[in-house]
Amino acid sequence: MQQVIYLDANDDLPAIRHLLEGAQAKQVLLVLPKGYQPLRDPLNLRMLRRSAEDLALDLVLVTQDGRTRQIAAKEGVAFVASVRKGQRGRWRRRSPRRSSAEQAAVDRMAGLRAGWGDKGYGDRAIVWAGRFLGLALFVFLLLLILGLGAILIPEARITLVPFRQPVEAILQLRADPEVSRPNTASLTIPARVLEVQVERTDQIATVSKRDAPDATATGVVTFINQTVAPQEILTDTLVRTTTGTTVRFKTVTTATLGSGVGSRAEVQIEALAPGPLGNVPAATINEVETPGLRGKVSVINPAPTEGGGVKQVGVVTRVDMDRLKAQLFEELQQQAFLELQSQLNEQEFLPPESLTYEIMSETYDQFLDTEADVLHLQMRILARGTAVDQANANLMAYDSLQEQIPPTYALESEEVSFDLDEKVRMEGRAVLVVVTASAHLVADVDRGAVRSVVAGLSADEASQVLVDSFALDAPPRVEVMPDWIKRWERLDRVPFPPFRIQVVVLE
Asked: Could you give the C-alpha distances from 421 to 188, 322, 424, in angstroms and in order?
């Protein structure tokens, strides 16, 4: 199978490596845009070849650029002029050409990895000594001085950017109040059940209205004596209507009827019940209820009574009760949640999904259908919730992250981040929560091995060996100092003494 990948003019070497990591086929045709510059650098092309080899990919460049094709031929990278030719398998592959010094360094690194040690240095020392064995004493002394200078004067700084790649671990943990310690095998961590009781009173205005009696009707009646003896009319003497709905009145003043039938007196009256029912027409109040006066006097209202009225009053309905209950219940839930949160430890959190609420008591100050403009309710609830220890969750996710670290890589622990999914599920009082740990893996660069493989090499040779030997995210930077030493080719090399080689690993 083949996969064709088209590069953008702005793609750099890390971007190409990222594209190769996502390749779905073993053979990859990498199409370079016209005028593409990064792969005209031999070092970049070597690093690209190394990345393809690490990924076990069969890499073919698609380019017509002569410079790029020339370098690819030298570095052993296959190339074709078009995608069609690449798909037909018409390309050339050559083995990379190395100088004797480069090959010696590569062989030396291979020997270090196999535990052989560095054998190249001793071989060169013997050759060096053989070449100048017959020289005169002053030449020997001169060379001795130069040799000491070559060892002690040159200094090299090697700057490396190790290869980095993201890594994450996603775990679904069970926070269970029934367990006392974390269990990695079952992905279970301890939890705590919290509870609190809260109580308060709230009120609302009733919505429904109805008419209610307000003012009491008043008027005047005339009492008529029906006997020859005088009659006393006292206060609270009861009279009433006799037609239609019976309306009762009482006297509020006193009077004395003179002797003789037909003597008269007027007395003020008011209705016993408030409301418009007490407004009766003239001549409708015509019966005396008080037993001591019945049959002795008669009564009549010469004019209508008036003044009885109504007003709008609130009335308690089931809707009012339910609305007040829902309102107060919500307020108590919020209050309970805040009080439960105050019980949390520093590393705990309380999922809202774990909260349950139970009404313990509720008392209204009015009955259903009673007249009231305001309805009060006193309620007490019990709230429970499950507290999850985030520290335990993070630690278990971190352990899972550690298990994913391959050999020769290390975890950037200071940059590990943890994320708890806001959505949780409940199983009884246990909480099922998803935690994600994210970090970066960094290639482990052994500074001692770096010093060993670059000793005695030129800057270019050292760069190639470092690319071939270590996983890097950018071309290495090899600096030989001081600058004036570059005038002598044999001295313009990485020194042999390890203490003269500074290795800087950028994070």
From this structure: 16, 36, 7
Burial of 313 (0-12, 13-18, 19+ CB in 10 A): middle
Looking at residue 404, its amino acid is Q
Q: Is the dihedral of CA 194, 195, 200, 205 positive or negative?
A: positive
Amino acid 282 reads A
Question: How many angstroms separate the CA atoms of 15 and 252, rounded?
Answer: 106
Lowest mean pLDDT among 160-174, 189-203, 328-342, 411-425: 411-425
> What pLDDT score was predicted for residue 96?
54
d(CA 357, CA 334): 11
CB-based contacts of 389, cutoff 8 Å, min separation 6: 175, 189, 190, 191, 192, 345, 347, 348
| Bridge partners (DSSP) listed for residue 190 | 176
* Nearest-10 crossing angle of helices 100-113, 447-454: 150
Question: How far apart are the C-alpha atoms of 187 and 172, rounded to whole Å?
Answer: 7
Looking at residue 127, its pLDDT comes to 42
- Going from the N-terminus, what domains does the chain have, and what CATH number goes with each? 2-87 (3.30.750.24), 100-156+448-467+479-496 (no CATH), 193-208+315-385 (no CATH), 212-311 (2.40.30)
Exposed (0-12), middle (13-18) or buried (19+): which is 7, by Cβ within 10 Å?
Answer: buried
pLDDT exceeds cutoff 80 at 39: yes
Edge-first strand order for the sheet with 477-481 is: 477-481, 155-160, 501-505
pLDDT digits (tens, 9 = 90+) for 250-295: 999 999 999 899 999 999 999 999 989 999 999 999 999 999 898 8
| Strand boundaries in 344-453, DSSP class E | 348-349, 356-364, 374-389, 409-411, 417-420, 425-427, 430-443
- HSE, CB side, 13 Å, CA atoms: give it for residue 251: 23
Q: Is 355 exposed, middle or buried (0-12, 13-18, 19+ CB in 10 A)?
A: middle
Determine the residue type at 21: E
495 is written with which tokens? 């020194």
